[in-house]
Amino acid sequence: MSLNIGVIGTGAIGQDHTRRINQVLAGARVVAVNDVNRANAEKCVADYAPGATIFDDPNALIADAGIDAVLVCSWGQTHEEYVLATIAAGKPCFCEKPLATTAEGARRIVDAEVAAGKRLVQVGFMRRYDPGYRALKRAVDSQTGAPLMVHAAHRNPRVGNAYVTPMAIHDTLIHEIDVLRWLLDDDYVSAQVLFPRKSPHAHEALRDPQVVILQTAKGVVIDVEIFVNSRYGYDIQCEVVGEEGIARLPEPMGIQTRLNATLGQPILMDWKDRFIDSYDYELTDFIRAASAGTAAGPTAWDGYVAAVTSDACVAAQEAEGTTIAIDLPARPAMYG
Ligand code: NAD
Ligand code: NAI
Ligand code: ISE
Predict the structure, then answer these.
(1) What Gene Ontology molecular-function terms does this entry list (predicted)?
(2) Ligand 1 pocket at CB < 6 A
C-alpha cells in the first residue's frame, strides 16, 4: 500500500521533496499540496505531481481522510501551526527545519506529541543522514579519541535581502547546532558570537560573517564560521580535534582535473546539491515509519533543543562578545 502524502509549502524544498517522493523513492505519493502562493502549488503539481489536488486551506489538507501523512515545507514561522494540527489529526508529520522559530513554540510541539503518546514528528535535519557525516561520526566514536575541539564553517555564496542577521542562526547555523550535538553525543551549555570586519557584499541589515562559539556539557569548544556571502561556493567544513588525532568531514565528490598547469576540483554553488543523497535517505526513513503510523529520525525534542540553542545564539549576537548560558529542561521519557 502506498502512503498518501500532502505537502504544505511548495517552494524550493517543497518542490524538490515532491520530486523525490514521486520520481525517486518508493512507497509513497504526493497526492495533495497547499501553498499561500497558488502559482507555486500549480507549478509543483504540473512538474512533479500530476493529478494531485491543490487545497486552498492547509488545515483542510491536514484533516482530509485521503491524506495519511504531511510534509511541512513552508516558511519557518508557519511550521508550528501546521505541525500541531497534524499531531492533533493523529498523522505523521515531516517538518523542515526549524521545527518552530521560538523555543516556546517547539516546546508546544513536544508537549503535544508527548500527550499523543507516540512519535509523530520527524524534523528535517538531513545532515544526520549524510554518508560523510556518518563516516566522520564513526571516526570520532572509534578512532580519534575523546573530542576536544570542533572547527566548522557554513558558507553560502550569497543570500537575498530578506535574509537578516538572526537568520544566520535560525536558518543556517541550525544545521550545525543539530548535527554537532548528534556527532559529539553532547549538549550545549553556552554560546558566544563574534563579528569580524563586515563583508562589503553583505547588505545593510546583515552582519556577515559571524563566528559562533559553543561550549558543551563535556567541555568541547566549538567554533563555527557562518559566512553567507562567500561568493566562491556553498562550502560546509567540519574538523573534530580529538585526544589522539583529527577527523575531517570529506569533501563532496568532484572530478579532479589537471588542466592548464592547474590541479583543480569543483566547488558546489547550491545547497540543494550538497546533501542531495541525505534528503533521499531522510524521506525514505519518514515513509518507512509513517507507513507504520509513527515517525523516526531527528525528533521534536531535537527540534526543541535546536530552538533553545538558537535563541541563546541570537541573544549572544545581540550582546556581542558576551557568553550566554544555555539551560535545558529534563528530556521527556519518550525521547530516550
Ligand atoms: P521558499 O520561499 O522557496 O518556499 C516557501 C513556500 O512556502 C513558498 O512557496 C510560500 O508561498 C509558501 N508558504 C509560505 N507561507 C505559507 C503558509 N502559511 N501556508 C502555505 N504555504 C506557505 O522557501 P524554501 O527555501 O523552500 O524554504 C522552506 C522551508 O524549508 C524553510 O523552513 C527552510 O528553512 C527549509 N529549508 C530547508 C533546507 C534544508 O537543507 N533542510 C533547505 C532550504 C530550506
Ligand atoms: P538507521 O541506520 O537505523 O536507519 C536509518 C534509515 O535511513 C535506514 O533505513 C537506512 O537505510 C537509511 N539511511 C540513513 N542514512 C543512510 C545512508 N547514509 N546511507 C544509506 N542509508 C541510509 O539509523 P537510525 O538510528 O534510525 O538513525 C537515523 C538518524 O536519525 C540518525 O541520524 C539518528 O541519530 C537519528 N535518530 C535520532 C533519534 C534521537 O532521539 N535523536 C532517534 C532516532 C534516530
Ligand atoms: C537554507 O534554508 C538551508 O537550509 C541551507 O542548508 C543553508 O545552507 C542555508 O544557509 C539556509 O538558508
Answers:
(1) inositol 2-dehydrogenase (NAD+) activity; nucleotide binding
(2) 8-14, 34-37, 40, 58, 73-76, 78, 96-97, 124, 126, 171, 271
In 3D, which of 179, 163, 177 has the Cα closest to residue 311? 177
Contacts of 196 (CB under 8 A, 6+ apart): 209, 210, 211
* ipTM of model: 0.70
Cell representation of residue 100: 518552530
Ligand with smallest separation from the Cα of 132: 2
Q: What is the mean pLDDT of residues 183-201?
A: 98
Structural domains of the chain, ranges and CATH numbers in brackets: 3-127+277-299 (3.40.50.720), 130-270+306-335 (3.30.360.10)
Are 210 and 226 within 8 A, CB to CB? yes
Q: What is the pLDDT of residue 316?
A: 98
241-286: per-residue pLDDT in tens? 999 999 999 999 999 999 999 999 999 999 989 999 999 999 999 9
